[in-house]
Amino acid sequence: MPPATILKFPTSSPADTTPLTRLQEAGFKTQDILGIVGKTEGNGCVNDFSRTLSSHVWDALIPETAISIFSGGTEGVLSPHVTCILESYEPTGLNAAVTRSRVLEPWEVGTAEHAKAVTESIRETMIEENIQPGDVRLVLVKCPLLTSERIATIQGSGRKPVTLDTYESMALSRYASAIGIGAAIETFLEPQIPYLLSKGDFQTPFASCSSGAELEDCHILILSDSRYTPSPPAPLLRTFTSTLNTAIDFPSLQALLTKALTPTAPYTTATLLQVFAKAEANPSGLVGGRFRHTMLTDSDLHSTRHARAAVGGLIAGVTGDCWVYVSGGAEGT
Amino acid sequence: MPPATILKFPTSSPADTTPLTRLQEAGFKTQDILGIVGKTEGNGCVNDFSRTLSSHVWDALIPETAISIFSGGTEGVLSPHVTCILESYEPTGLNAAVTRSRVLEPWEVGTAEHAKAVTESIRETMIEENIQPGDVRLVLVKCPLLTSERIATIQGSGRKPVTLDTYESMALSRYASAIGIGAAIETFLEPQIPYLLSKGDFQTPFASCSSGAELEDCHILILSDSRYTPSPPAPLLRTFTSTLNTAIDFPSLQALLTKALTPTAPYTTATLLQVFAKAEANPSGLVGGRFRHTMLTDSDLHSTRHARAAVGGLIAGVTGDCWVYVSGGAEGT
Amino acid sequence: MPPATILKFPTSSPADTTPLTRLQEAGFKTQDILGIVGKTEGNGCVNDFSRTLSSHVWDALIPETAISIFSGGTEGVLSPHVTCILESYEPTGLNAAVTRSRVLEPWEVGTAEHAKAVTESIRETMIEENIQPGDVRLVLVKCPLLTSERIATIQGSGRKPVTLDTYESMALSRYASAIGIGAAIETFLEPQIPYLLSKGDFQTPFASCSSGAELEDCHILILSDSRYTPSPPAPLLRTFTSTLNTAIDFPSLQALLTKALTPTAPYTTATLLQVFAKAEANPSGLVGGRFRHTMLTDSDLHSTRHARAAVGGLIAGVTGDCWVYVSGGAEGT
Amino acid sequence: MPPATILKFPTSSPADTTPLTRLQEAGFKTQDILGIVGKTEGNGCVNDFSRTLSSHVWDALIPETAISIFSGGTEGVLSPHVTCILESYEPTGLNAAVTRSRVLEPWEVGTAEHAKAVTESIRETMIEENIQPGDVRLVLVKCPLLTSERIATIQGSGRKPVTLDTYESMALSRYASAIGIGAAIETFLEPQIPYLLSKGDFQTPFASCSSGAELEDCHILILSDSRYTPSPPAPLLRTFTSTLNTAIDFPSLQALLTKALTPTAPYTTATLLQVFAKAEANPSGLVGGRFRHTMLTDSDLHSTRHARAAVGGLIAGVTGDCWVYVSGGAEGT
């Protein structure tokens, strides 16, 4: 698994690929790109064509083995940008690997077959790249959703779609991907996939999944800690994970940032490169078990948009950075 | 000007007036109500009937001299609630007075006549209640907007409306109110009202204005510091003001909260009663002069909704309180 | 069952009850009101507070035995109005009766208990008012939906809600009501209620159901043909029913209108009083089995809004009348 | 000016270019394409990236001299499709020419310079292709709009944008284009351009303009009647124009269709190839001077979306065809 580094750049529109030029100015070649993880400015829901547009322009430029993961929705202060995951010639402390699942049939989206396909792809990559489960820090997955057309295809084939609601299919797809990630890291979970799917409350801290109409397979990015660290003063990349217990869990966020921004000797400074977060409207209708929220009864604005805006406002505010990756819908994560 | 105290309660819907019962349980009478300042769960824009519904049910219950100010929009983690401004029988350190402007003709909304009407009403109240300009800490105004019908009335009378865009009329109305507040506190500004209106960049830290279709006059609430303070251990109410320079200005917010939550001897504890904030998408299209935001190019979701969600996410997160008053559109403030 | 007549009036806002004055000018008393059926200008979905506001102001004015049915959503050319169903002192050819079901527990919404409660209420009324099943021409029902709060109540009681999606609960509630109507008219259907609910494709031409958060029981209006007709030249009220096979089924609409507008001797003119229609996005994703529509993949705008706008455009265009009752979501109808 | 023919095809997504294959199956070559006029499934407003995506994929495939015009918004029953304007080897009765204006500077959008650039391009083409003003039947223009970024560019250059509201810039841009078209056909109007712009009520029946963020010049398609007609039984293409006086003007629509569908000897049948229509919410707030509409006070849904849905519902219903080109915002037309 190659050592990796991370650079991020703002984009002026979903069709903006000028970050490629800036990468070259920074000394990287196109071939160094492992993956492009971006936030685009659509609604982040079913008919978000900003994601499709970004995939379209970037997929034509990055290496065939590289993947793109675009998450729509830059509500509030979130700012469109791309995070480039790049192969590094020297150890950085961070490793990255990317892969794709097989193409999922429409009727597999959100099912055990979907979860298993994700598990399989991740596990193959872990074997190939010699990644130990304990070293995995984050798996980002972009997975398909069901459009009206795909639902009709499913029904035409005599099968039953997991849902008739295209927006809900996004959540079911994210959840299946999260279970797939969980089962890849913790092998004993694999036989439980169907049970976990039906139970509905599986959670893993290592997953960040988003769904879109722009693809039919799953794009997978694995970030892991490396045993090979750079020689100071070459910068050391470190990962930190935490769970926000509520959408207003500022104490946990602050604790995490304090930890991340405390330099370890011999380093004397620490800089935040990127935040990857998932945001969700609590299904109970309450924030923190106490404050009634209206995200799930707002028929003008889907709850994932609300959640991204609010959690994005908090994270961007506290970090002072609007180029953070905040994605909506935290099923399974 | 009467000493005042503040209590806030969640609401289960825009029609929920049960806080009245809870006020009584807390020892207050309906006659003690000076004003009800609430957040309701509509879109906060032109066709927000949650505001109208709340006004309707509350105005029938509160004293005739009391006023209601409902601000729509509880995007993200913001939670519907009412803040009750109550007359106190003992000094609290905080004074409050409420008034209403005369009814504005549709063609006055957003003009110098509107601003002057606000100035006049505030100034009369300041004289009657013996409020010194230097003691005023916050003036909340709820002011009218232009619906299609009101625009037609204006045109039918041979006049020209300030705008043909109903959503834009909200901003123009807020701005005229803010200028009216400014001119009430700083007398020398009054002759400049027409100039300030056309110039467009007036700002006062004392104003919080929101507009709605549910009223034709302006509802005005004045909060000021009192020279009469309670005898400890009776609680002392204090006000603190600050400007967030950007929608992600966490340092300013944190500094303000630190100040507010540091007890002054002989008190040993300090509690946050309420936050009144205005949120706005920076017209430059950038957050902090640097991060491109998409709030002004999102034709599915008006920028005031984006701004409330993001700034609400930050303030609710950092204070741990979702019953905060965050209102959208900060023209003049 | 009393003879009934119908008058309709535009409204200037959801809080506008001036049609009451116009009714009096037309010679009716408040006590003559059997029901108010209105279109209000909200989103017609879960958080449509225009409906609640209208219910609130009208329910305080109409007789206790009368009912209100407000359907939100005046997209496109649809124009806010109320249709007053009035008791007539003379036969008109049309009879009307109104009733309410018992209050539904949150966990009953959308279930067989809901359908049965509707059946029961209608049947009792039919017996009391001596209405023959074959004479029933239209049953309008307004029924509850599930908000986040009601979903939490259900879960708190250890039960499982029919759905966790508040918007979807509207469709399930409409469907249960339609089955309830069907079973009231065709007795043999009653034992099949649970089966029809699970099967999902029941249809009756006599039902028009809409759901809202503003009520906990079902409001029911029954229109039937009367055997007692007025003596000409007193106007004769007649009802005509048809099904639009698609959202663009102009031929069926035209045929129906031609029939309705052809006077029967001795009458020499015929006037259209009102159209009651239901509109829906075809679940197949196609209009007329051929044209791909995007109503079910549009995450910015719920499909009921799309459907009302389009079918409302057609019906208002062809009839030349924007005060038509076009309601979204045609489950069971 | 080349004889032209028209073929239209449904699209399965904004990225779908399979109509190209179907064109080839129908005997056309890519080089025959003069223009692609499509309806895509975005919101049709500022952030409609479905338009950008379609432009992106099609512009890479069509001849350099050809143009694309994508209009977003397939609300209600409108169905995504492309109309291909093709050069014909034989006379058809219809001629077509396409051109582009020079790139407009951001500060020119919506101004007299914009209108003049359109006039100039059209007039040059008319001279080159020998088109007589009296033969022009329809000019379709796709023109730029102002994004936050372009507004900042304008302000950065010390200029004043025509508006600060990105959505409003779409209307101003359409209006300038319409004036440009009018002045190209009626020469005497050219000196009046600034006056017509400020007056705001210019109208020409020959224009159909839509704006988008996906281009910086204007794409222009001119359809005109040809003096050369085919020899029967080769099909004769004819154009018919009418104005709907209101959004529910069914009589005018019906009269137009009757005229269009009445075959002229020696032809015995007539088929409708395509409808190009503009739809708009009447600024008075009333449909037909009588029915209050809510399109201009709906802050959740822009009026162009409402208007397309309603007028699209009428036209698709009456023609039985959902692949009609109904575009929102009829300024100047």
Largest sheet data of chain A: 4 strands, mixed
Q: Which sequence of SSEs, written as H and E, runs from N to C of chain A?
A: EHEHEEEHEHHHEEHEEEHE
Our measurement of the CA-to-CA distance between the termini of chain A, rounded to an integer number of angstroms, reads 24 Å
Structural class of chain A: alpha/beta
State the helicity of chain A in percent bands.
25-40%
If you average the pLDDT of chain A, what whole number results?
A: 96
Count of helical regions of chain A: 8
Shape of chain A: globular
- Indicate the radius of gyration of chain A in whole angstroms: 19 Å
Second-tier CATH architecture of the domain at 250-328 in chain A? 2-Layer Sandwich
Q: Would you give an account of this structure?
A:
The structure is a homotetramer of 333-residue chains. The first copy, chain A, has 333 residues and is an alpha/beta fold. Chain A has a domain at 250-328: Cyanuric acid hydrolase/Barbituras, RU C (60s Ribosomal Protein L30, Chain: A), CATH 3.30.1330.160. In chain A, 30% of the residues lie in helices and 21% in strands. Chain A has helices at 19-25, 49-59, 112-128, 148-156, 166-185, 193-199, 250-260, 303-319, and strands spanning 4-10, 33-40, 67-72, 81-87, 94-100, 136-144, 207-212, 219-225, 276-279, 286-287, 291-292, 325-328. A 4-stranded mixed beta sheet of chain A has the order 1-4-2-3, with helices on one face. In chain A, strand 10 (286-287) and strand 11 (291-292) form a beta hairpin. In chain A, helix 7 crosses helix 8. The first copy, chain A, is globular and about 60 Å long. The mean pLDDT of chain A is 96. Chains in contact: A-B, A-C, A-D, B-C, B-D, C-D. Chain A binds chain B through residues 10, 12, 41, 43, 74-80, 247-250, 253, 287-288, 290-295, 297-298, 300-301, 305-307, 309-314, 316-318, 320-323, and chain B through 10, 12, 41, 43, 74-80, 247-250, 253, 287-288, 290-295, 297-298, 300-301, 305-307, 309-314, 316-318, 320-323.
